[in-house]
Prior knowledge:
The protein has twelve helices and eleven strands. The two termini are 32 Å apart. It is globular, with a radius of gyration of 20 Å. Helices cover 35% and strands 14% of the residues. The chain has an eleven-stranded mixed β-sheet with strand order 1-3-2-4-6-5-10-11-9-7-8, with helices on both faces. The model has no long low-confidence stretch (mean pLDDT 95). It is an alpha/beta fold.
Amino acid sequence: MTTQNDASTRLARAIALADKIDGELKAFTYRPSSYPSAGRADRADSALAGVPVAIKDLIDTSDMPTTYGSKIFARHQPRQDAWIVSKLRDAGAVIFGKTVTTEFAWRDPGDTVNPWNPAHSPGGSSSGSAAAVGANIVDIALGTQTVGSIIRPASYCGAIGYKPTYGLIPTTGVHALAPTLDHLGFITSNFHWAAVCHGIIVKDGRVDESVASGKFAEGVKPRKIGVYRSSQWANVEADVQQNFDAVVRRLEAYGVVCVEADFDADLRELNVLVNNVLAYEGRASIYDDIKDAEHLAGPYTRELMQRGAAVGSDEYKHLLERVAKMRAGRDARLQGLDAIMTITSPTGALKGLEKTGDASFCAPATLLGLPAVTVPSGFSTEFLPYGVQLIGSANADLALLKTGQWFSTILPSIKAASSGTAVS
């Protein structure tokens, strides 16, 4: 149960820290000048009562502007909340503000910087959400993922990323990019908050007893983990390889069996499939929004429209058939495994803000619609966070979160950047 004093203190801290650092961090596109209360009094028994939650600016809010990261929608004000925002309000959460997204959740970045080093990218497309959590402003922020837009920025910013099984959260009120691939999810400061969001939003209010009782903190130790390096391992930065291999050795030291794992197709083939589906559906989702003001759209958005126009309807139908076939057999790849572990990106957070990073290793979980989480796993030589990605069986999200929590107890602890150095 959250008391009114607890809720007020939590909100006051979030406001003070955002006021202090967001001028440089640039995580938010909008924050209200005042907040009506620190949560609904009638939901004081809710684990989200009074908890400030940041909302990616791809997601409609009835009382705050929603621009979808585009100059074309600079003055756009939705008439009603997205489904997930309504659920958060019903649970007593405080909608803290809107966070920066790349344009239409594609590749044209906003101004957000990495909270650990402002010269580096926070990742994308959920850049503002990841930075707001990584900087310790809020414990929970909403993100979306069409390829790697929750998992990768969470990793770059030292946060937890949780992408639920495809379709578990309705995307009503969220601007589509590629509906076959689009996921709603969460970036959080720890696995406790990810599990709370799973219970209240994904499971419609049923927070698992282990979370309510505190037993969740122990996590659940896995017996066998599949290790996925893929045919593209030679293209992964050496420091990323070393961090990943160190996690494997640590697991083995704790008695976890680690075996090589794979998916139904080569990583390159999976990414070609994702990118072709995304191009066709991205054009269908965005073109009508920009056709009368295309000069205001970013270069990556315009390029996506061109690629989408080159994918014919017959080819698209074939692409969907391949996706459906792969999803039908997806759990076979996890048979006998507690999870498959891979990297979140072939590089650490990129220097500069022009690009958001490589999401190719996130494509398998997104394409197959499997739940995935980011677990912070250490630092680069430039003191930027690394993370590993865990992929679980479809609809076994809570089990994956418990595995991720156990991982977090044996891997290096990463404190939020704002408590020490980078953005202050």
